[in-house]
Inverse folding.
């Protein structure tokens, strides 16, 4: 039975219920367990909380010993963004690879297997999929996290992903509403702006969210972006026009609305996390995600107290907070029913639940996403090469813990392979010196977005025309090299993809 501390008033419980905080370590700290007893209903997990599937299952069991209906959320997209396999790389390709294959049955199967693994570890809410249409090639934060640049393609794969994930009893959280694809700014660092008119937004950005809603997505995550055509004053997370009028009333969505990380600078730098949280709930959000950067009891207390104060001063209607808390509890009830409930929702999950899922479907999907370009005659690698990773700065959503590239698998396949990372104006020359006489494998990410990377690759190919080029980002630049493997996602275990 759910444990609620006696004497905790309704307002305090509701304020705690709408929070989705993070915490440090691989076991739950005492303060977190105490807050669960007082009414906290959700926690968010990040790479720092996970060491192995067995440890994760133990952690979620520890949380449920305190509150049996707790929502345990995670940011597990596959590909670039993985928490389950943060130190080894995901066993599943990301969205862009799935979009490149364009087989919705495969996308559904990948999501179902990912959901099964999450459920097995006790995770019941996934902050995925990304339904953003990556229409801006310069986008620094979405990129391969998107199924692609075509709204219809993104829509059908978003729906398949939602159906597959929820067939395992794991709630999908479709993001980042109303669409983060046409941006050139990372909202972790500043406030992006989309200047499209309403007609374009309706046909492009909103199409995948309509598909997700039709597929029965249990949650939607808001974006910290300014869309003047919808609201010229406030970012989507804080906008009643976007969250309530558009998402609730016009699109007919009635599930949980979760904010993106409240400590992200797009909101925090202007409003602060306390004021931002109050405005988000008032605008129509039901749950406040925080914990990627701020992961302590003080943060929970600050946000709890800000919400309570806002209700008591009349800034936040008490009924709005109560309704938000009830939506959190409603989702908790759905996840508690598990796979059986998912099959019975009528949202298409039953078909996925009854179909056989291959444990190696991630490998199958990654191999299907591979694209080879270059000369018809290619001399394969026979001796240990030198892998030069032309490495850009990782965006915050990805983090720098997760390995990428092909070096680890080439070391296994061709013992003696050496590797290093290079960046900046001298990257090409430095890689040539380091490689010596070895054949070079140059691994790049989004060459089209990084002039230094394009220049370094040009230097390598001019000096060593037999350099093998592997693009592991969005393959926007013309392929170069005798044979370039154009991947639609990062796979830290490339021999498996």
């Amino acid at each position: 039975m759910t444990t609620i501390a006696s004497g905790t008033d309704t307002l305090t419980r509701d304020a705690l219920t709408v929070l989705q905080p993070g915490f440090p370590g691989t076991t739950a700290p005492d303060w977190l367990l105490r807050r669960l007893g007082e009414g906290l209903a959700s926690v968010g997990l990040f790479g720092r909380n996970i060491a192995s599937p067995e440890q994760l299952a133990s952690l979620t069991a520890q949380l449920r010993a305190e509150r049996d209906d707790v929502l345990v959320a995670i940011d597990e997209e596959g590909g670039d963004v993985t928490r389950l396999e943060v130190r080894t790389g995901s066993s599943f390709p990301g969205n862009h690879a799935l979009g490149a294959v364009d087989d919705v049955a495969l996308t559904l199967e990948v999501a179902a297997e990912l959901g099964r693994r999450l459920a097995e570890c006790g995770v019941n809410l996934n902050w995925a999929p990304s339904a953003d249409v990556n229409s801006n090639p310069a986008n620094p934060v979405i990129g391969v996290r998107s199924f692609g640049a075509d709204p219809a393609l993104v829509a059908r794969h978003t729906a398949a992903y939602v159906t597959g994930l929820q067939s395992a009893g794991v709630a999908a959280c479709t993001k980042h509403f109303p669409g983060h694809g046409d941006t050139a700014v990372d909202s972790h660092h500043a406030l992006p702006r989309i200047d499209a008119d309403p007609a374009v937004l309706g046909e492009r950005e909103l199409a995948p969210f309509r598909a997700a809603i039709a597929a029965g997505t249990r949650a939607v995550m808001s974006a910290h972006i300014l869309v003047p055509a919808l609201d010229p004053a406030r970012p989507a997370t804080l906008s009643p026009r976007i969250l309530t009028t558009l998402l609730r009333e016009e699109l007919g969505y009635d599930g949980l609305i979760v904010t993106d990380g409240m400590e992200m600078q797009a909101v925090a730098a202007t409003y602060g996390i306390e004021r931002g949280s109050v405005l988000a709930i008032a605008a129509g959000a039901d749950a406040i995600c925080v914990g990627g950067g701020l992961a302590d009891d003080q943060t929970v207390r600050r946000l709890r107290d800000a919400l309570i104060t806002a209700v008591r001063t009349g800034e936040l209607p008490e009924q709005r907070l109560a309704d938000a808390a009830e939506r959190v509890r409603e989702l908790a009830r759905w996840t508690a029913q598990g796979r059986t409930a998912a099959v019975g929702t009528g949202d298409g999950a039953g078909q996925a639940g009854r179909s056989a899922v291959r444990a190696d479907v991630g490998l199958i999907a990654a191999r299907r996403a591979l694209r080879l370009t270059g000369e018809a005659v290619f001399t394969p690698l026979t001796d240990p090469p030198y892998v030069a990773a032309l490495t850009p700065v990782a965006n915050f959503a990805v983090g720098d813990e997760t390995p990428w590239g092909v070096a680890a698998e080439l070391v296994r396949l061709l013992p003696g392979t050496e590797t290093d990372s290079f960046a900046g104006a001298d990257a090409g020359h430095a890689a040539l010196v380091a490689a010596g006489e070895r054949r070079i494998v140059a691994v790049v990410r989004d060459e089209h977005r990084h002039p230094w990377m394009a220049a370094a690759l040009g230097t390598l190919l001019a000096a060593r025309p037999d350099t093998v080029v592997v693009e592991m980002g969005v393959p926007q630049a013309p392929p170069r090299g005798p044979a370039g493997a154009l991947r639609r996602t990062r796979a830290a275990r490339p021999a498996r993809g």
Notes: Confidence is low (pLDDT under 50) at residues 1-7, 339-355, 484-497. DSSP finds 18 helices and 14 strands in the chain. The CA atoms of residues 390 and 422 lie 5 Å apart. The longest strand covers residues 171-177.
